[in-house]
Amino acid sequence: MTILVIAEHEGGALKSATLNTVTAAAKIGGDIHVLVAGAGVAAIAAEAAKIAGIAKVLTAEAPALEHHLAEPLAALIVALAPGYTHILAPATTTGKNVAPRVAALLDVAQLSDITAVVSADTFVRPIYAGNALATVQSKDAIKIITVRGTGFEAAAASGGSATVEAVAPAADPGLSSFVGQQLSKSERPELTSARIIVSGGRGMGSGENFALIEAVADRLSAAVGASRAAVDAGFVPNDFQVGQTGKIVAPDLYVAVGISGAIQHLAGMKDSKVIVAINKDEEAPIFQVADYGLVADLFKALPELAQELDKK
Amino acid sequence: MKVLVAVKRVIDYNVKIRVKSDNSGVETANVKFSMNPFDEIAVEEAVRLKEAGKATEIVVVSLGPVAAQETIRTALAMGADRGVLVQTDDEVQPLAVAKALKALVDKEQPGLVILGKQAIDDDSNQTGQMLAALLGWSQGTFASKVELGDKATVTREVDGGLETVALKLPAVVTTDLRLNEPRYASLPNIMKAKKKPIDTVTPADLGVDTSPRLVTLKVEEPAKRKSGVKVADVAALVDKLKNEAKVI
């Protein structure tokens, strides 16, 4: 068996979701190759070659691949597919965009968002917002899979010494073009790889009030997240959203502030190791999953929490 | 331009999901069903395009049992013009859905297909991308804004923020939550929708083999979290996090 892992990278660096996907590949077993596609990716390929357990890194460079557009990236992966039994991508917005296109072009099914590997053809994936876990067997010759990062530990980023080989990019189908992007800039850790996350919900009342969340997050070196309600209300941008259709996170500590705990939000964070809920409504469903619940007015509790964390 | 919208009948998002005791699936008997929320957004977007004079006709398609007619009827009440039910009682997986939709697109020749980005039952997030692949069309997934001109300019919700792409038409667009807020159908429109036509075809009529490629071996409940404790104040909380959970 030979497995192709599609590397996720941004701003000239490999994204950590790639490492979790490599671990999923290792659980399937066999040789693991990593594809780094983009424009000017030599440094990223060198970084990928150091991942423990990788046999080979493939690089494909073309202007059309620079922004990970689904159409040219899928064409490339389809051209490489005959050499592989499994093709794995992180279940990020890039992976979710391209993998089904690849699967349909190969006339095979896709397994989305797997959280465990049972065997080379059988996998576990959450359905119904994680309220049920399905064990699913694929009958297809090539298995196209997206991997939920929280289901697998990150592979070691160093220790490997894979060979790097350039492959020809496929012809750009010329169907789409990149116009621009507005990426949230933050000094804080990224949501999906943060050790601690402090999230705010509708109870925050406004975007300005997220400063109270940030003050606590700063003291914990934490990422800041939000519920769908807070994003829909325009308090924070879409990339803050944790939940069934937003980001799936499983940090060591998740602090939910002013979040009632709709199942769609719980789906995105209930695998966190320790959950803290701060809410003035003691009946809020979030308390049913919280290890530590504090029934309090968040506008009082958050400044107190920041102060308490300053004490040594 | 004709717009085709795909809608799925799913267990209502407010229903508490129960896994069947024989682990064969989830309980669907006596459970409320409604239109997949992302598909409501897709229908709304199509109706807005028609109201803006950019779409001429909206055809809404659903795959599923006879009861999926109700889902189509909901879309017609929101403003779609006519429906097509691809009727089947079997489980239909995303690849087969995409093939059935492709057959209908070949027949209807729309300039744009809009789908929800994922169904909240199987959470696959595949059908739109697969349909675009089978048609050889461009795809704009997870859209939070769609502008139609010579091309479709689609703003997409991505992990790092927002990204804008220009798509050659015809194109497939899948909706994210912030694209629009779906309307409630008014009573007169619900009455009017009853007179709008719904065609019924079968997957076989479309030449599509729907046999599943993925076999679900079992469906289980996830492990429950142990119930936690309430703490009296912020100081007690910090103490627990430091000394009991040892996470800060």
From TrEMBL, chain A:
It holds the Pfam family ETF_alpha. Residues 3-182 form the Electron transfer flavoprotein alpha/beta-subunit N-terminal domain. FAD binds at residues 202, 227-228, 241-245, 258-265, 279. InterPro entries: DHS-like_NAD/FAD-binding_dom (IPR029035), ETF_a/b_N (IPR014730), ETF_a/FixB (IPR001308), ETF_alpha_N (IPR033947), ETF_asu_C (IPR014731), ETF_asu_C_CS (IPR018206), Rossmann-like_a/b/a_fold (IPR014729). One of its GO terms (biological process) is fatty acid beta-oxidation using acyl-CoA dehydrogenase. Keywords: Electron transport, FAD, Flavoprotein, Transport. Binds 1 FAD per dimer. Its cofactor is FAD. PROSITE patterns: ETF_ALPHA. One of its GO terms (molecular function) is electron transfer activity. Heterodimer of an alpha and a beta subunit. The electron transfer flavoprotein serves as a specific electron acceptor for other dehydrogenases. It transfers the electrons to the main respiratory chain via ETF-ubiquinone oxidoreductase (ETF dehydrogenase). Belongs to the ETF alpha-subunit/FixB family. This is Electron transfer flavoprotein subunit alpha. It comes from Magnetospirillum moscoviense.
From TrEMBL, chain B:
SMART domains: ETF. The keyword Transport applies. It comes from the Bacteria. Its cofactor is AMP. Keywords: Electron transport, Transport. GO terms for biological process: carboxylic acid catabolic process. GO terms for molecular function: electron transfer activity. Residues 23-210 form the Electron transfer flavoprotein alpha/beta-subunit N-terminal domain. Coiled coil: none annotated. Heterodimer of an alpha and a beta subunit. Belongs to the ETF beta-subunit/FixA family. The electron transfer flavoprotein serves as a specific electron acceptor for other dehydrogenases. It transfers the electrons to the main respiratory chain via ETF-ubiquinone oxidoreductase (ETF dehydrogenase). This is Electron transfer flavoprotein subunit beta.
